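Lab meeting prep.
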Amino acid sequence: MVKYCNIRLFTLSFLIVSALNLTGCTEENVKFKQIMDKAAIAENNNDIETVIKIFESAIDNISKDDKEHEVTYLEHLSCAYFKIGRYDKAEPAMTKVLNLKTAKLGNEHQDVACILDNLGQLYMTTDNMDKAEQNFIRAKEIREKTIGKQHQDYATTCNNLAELYRKTNRPIKAEPLYRQALDIYIKNLSENHPWVATTYTNMAELHRQTNRPKIAEEYYIKALAILENNSTLQTAVTYNNLGELYRETYRIEEAETNYIQALEIFKESYKDGHPDMASTYNNLGLIYNLKGNYSKAEQMHLKALDIDYKYFDKFHTNIARDCNNLALLYWKTNKLTQAKEYFEKTLSILENYSRSNNIQHPQYEPTIRDFTKLLSEMKFTKEQIKKEIEKLKKQDIGEIQTTE
């Protein structure tokens, strides 16, 4: 039986500049600085809801002639939406910023590359891998022309493109990009910079994914050494992912400890839940499953599913992950009808992913095998099993049933 987790492995760099070099003390510029300072204070307190309210209000009350400041507000607002998982609002805001900046600055400007990179991260998070790749490649091309291949912003795009290649099962393309990003960060920043830690975490995931657990653990520990005594979201993601490595290598108690540490940090930052928290709840569910505490495992998986339904549409692969883990749990506890239902939901979503991205999801075949074994246990004949699988393949995505 196959269990899988889909974990976010990078955090969006969301920085609000509070000290601005204003050209002239016009009323608009003074108001602009006040708004940016208020937003910076809220962001430093990790109060992103207040950041959103500040920028939404600023946009609603801005002068019609103040287009320059409006774009800045909208850009920061789109990043705030992204950070707390409001992807449906982040995309149109980022797209509008891209159009406005392209019209003003042209297609080859560094600011345009920045928005393309942010959009790439958004599309990767929401499973639109084709669009994500197009945006990252375009951002990389612009940054190579405008700031050169030794700049840290160029490294960030290399890192993000590597993440996409890793997530779409192209590790040979991913690894040299990670190494290029790491070399640039160490040269331009320092060996102990948080961006170096992020790249270590991503490289650890690549090695974990390609069955090199010892090297993966070394990179996770390097990342945590940099992030020591720093309870940031990046720290939580690293604890979560190290927990995954320990779970996969049957170091169950160490895995549980890391998941709990991650969850404690996430709870401080995400009062109403977040996909990152859902991943950790799911992983804890897998631990409780291994320990034989099936009721607690079910509770964790259902919490994850509830959070992910709030943040993603019903065809997102995070929903597939949640449903798959519930299917495996119900199968193990002999609740075969419920297991069948959740396997069908999983496979329907993975079918949709394959159609949308023109590439088969790496978990599709393993899940088909599990589904086939389950149906055999339920006394389905070979012909009936074949019909069940064909029905899922032909199913229109609008027909997929969910229980939110």
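Slide two material, second protein:
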Amino acid sequence: KTKITKTNEKIDRLSKELKDSREGPGRVDILIKLCEEYRQSDLEKAKDYAMQGLEISKRINYQKGIADAYTDIGIIHRNQGNYPLTLEYYSKSLKIYEELGNRKGIGSSYNEIGIIYNYQGNYPLALEYYLKSLKIREELGERGGIATVYNNIGIIYYRQGNYPPALEYYIKSLKIQEELGDRRGIARRYNNIGLIHFEQGNYSLALEYYLKSLKIVEELGDRRGMARRYSNIGMIYKKQGNDSLALEYFFKSLRICEELGEKISLSHAYQGIGLCYTGGNDIKKGIDYLRRGLKLAQSINHGDTIRDSHRELSQAYAKIKQFETAYQHHVLFKEKSDELKNKELNKKITQMSMQYEFDKKQQVVQMELEKRKNLISALIVSSVLLVLLLFFIYSRFHLKKKSNIVIRAEKEKAVKANKAKSEFLANMSHELRTPLNAVIGFSELLSSMVMDPKQKSYTRSISTG
């Protein structure tokens, strides 16, 4: 079975559970899960499920359900490019998670807020939220969340043109996702690694990663992900001079984005189509698409696309000898480029990241020192207890030994007394027996001589005792 079939089966199962459920937290949780399933393919349906979950949660005062619904609604607005409304919903969900003490929810909210500031080119603030999210997720041992934050930090470095640390974070993230078997996460990391190779001019390796990523998202039925990969692959073919194949992929992306209302990827598709046409013989048509992409990027304040659109428009207007307009776009391109790729900003981002790593190491060292301190204390207590135990055992042994000596002495004394008694009785018996023998012998002799019965009985009594 394909992943798409499995996804449909999951939606069918959740739909059946929803039908059988009663109003309560369980029903809300099912609605939220359905929202998350549809988020990659049908934003309107996803939003409908999230709103249903929100309404029920408010009715039954299910605070976690309200927060979860706010988060999902925020993500939907983010995908549609409405960043102010996205931040509004994220702030609402974060406040509830904080009131509930739901640290997992807090960590997730920090990450989502960081993504918006990243899109808007406010990289220091984005990194600040990412690092707050990372700290919580590391404490909770939430490995999937850790991988997501690593990826997002990598994106900041990528957008600053600092590719080595970007690649390092992407690979760290990919390793965790592979261990977890998270195919959606693996697909995203492949795509981002492909972007690094593209920027470094290694188009064949970039295409390899894009295709690996595309295969997974197609199996998952992730149409939003497919649209992004189509644009990236189209850009490879454009760079290789194959405009017809590039246009095929850009239009495939365009169709999906228009269906989903996915503004970020739609602006990329417009930009790619515009590049193909301006690179050929239909420059005016290309400028039209580039202007569409610029307008859309400006409406959502997506810094990277705004910068790139100004660059491409500058070059396109120069080709048709509209040099003043070309110069205006060139100036805007430089301003946006300097704004996004600022050396001091890059330095600050690196320092923030390094400071976090340093603080984390210091925390580990402190924990190790505390662990050793506790171990030493335990050893000292154990040693004292052992000494006391040995002293107790020795005292008992000494007392027992002393007691045995006394008992032995008393026993010997008793034996001597018994022996003396036996000897005394033996001597007394001997001393008494000698004169008594004479008396007994005389009584027997007298008995034989006496004839009177009464006297005879007296002599018999003497001999018999």
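Talking points for slide two:
The chain has a mean pLDDT of 86.
The two ends are 121 Å apart (CA to CA).
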